[in-house]
Amino acid sequence: MDQILYDVEDRVAVITLNRPEVANAQTMELLDDLDAAWSRAAADDEVRVIVLKGNGKHFSSGHDLKGGGPAPDKITLEHIYAVEARRYLEHTLRWRNVPKPSIAAVQGKCIAGGLMLCWPCDLIVAAENAQFSDPVVHMGIGGVEYHGHTWELGPRKAKEILFTGRPITADEAEKVGMVNRVVPLDELEATAMELAGQIAQMHPFALRQAKRAVNQTLDVQGFYAAIQSVFDIHQTGHGNALSDVGFPVLLRHQGMKDKLKSQ
Fold first, then answer.
1. Strand pairing partners for 102?
2. What is the pTM of this model?
3. Would you list the domain boundaries of the chain?
4. Most CB atoms closer than 10 Å: which of 67, 85, 133, 205?
5. Could you give the CA distance from residue 120 to residue 146 in angstroms, rounded to a whole number?
6. 80 contacts 240 by C-beta, under 8 angstroms
7. What's the rounded Cα separation, in Å, for the pair 52 and 102?
8. How many CB atoms are located within 10 Å of the residue 244 CB?
9. Which domain of life is it from (predicted)?
């Protein structure tokens, strides 16, 4: 089964995470295929808007900790840094800067690495049952590789979800401006597609320039530099997780992801 599905409907490219049996957990293959789908949509002159969604009950449970990587005793910080710089940081920034509007449609759980998929999108439509969390402080790591937390949530709410690991609801996310709309679950896809259709009627060059204006304003305020610098801070967390005490904590945390499969 393809881990990523791709379709174009009325000038809207629909990219679908397609691992519902594991709550759309992210393998390296999935992330590479996802990057290829983003690039395909960006290069297609017929596509004016991109919609990202997930099959199944949950948008994404984050990184697949059973994804077949090297054995724990073979992993080095150098290896982790190289893999994450490419597949998390570079991919995510590239998606954020695709010169076309993008919309994430989020339902159920959006955990840790799942935030790295929806935050680069320009707009987020969330189902009423959506929950957003980054519980990796429990693993001895200070947050996911793409530190959008402060920008998306504001500093105090960002600290709260990191310090406690608790999820925030779709309504909470809308109140702080992280989410554009909250809708009933059975209206999620239709709402995202309707919004995409409205945007697709606009002039593509004007859309590109409007997106560039907002993103450049954020970059002047320090967004791009902060993402880069906090990525290095994040890697010190992996150094902690590779220690004798830290790494077993990381493995035990897999239990949270296993629990999602039965929900």
1. 50
2. 0.88
3. 4-261
4. 133
5. 9
6. no
7. 8
8. 6
9. Bacteria
Rg of the chain over Cα atoms, rounded to whole angstroms, equals: 18
Condensed to tens digits (0 to 9), the pLDDT of residues 94-145 reads 999 999 999 999 999 999 999 999 999 999 999 999 999 999 887 778 888 8
CATH architecture of 4-261: Alpha-Beta Complex (3.90)
* Amino acid, single-letter form, for residue 14: V
Average pLDDT, the chain: 88
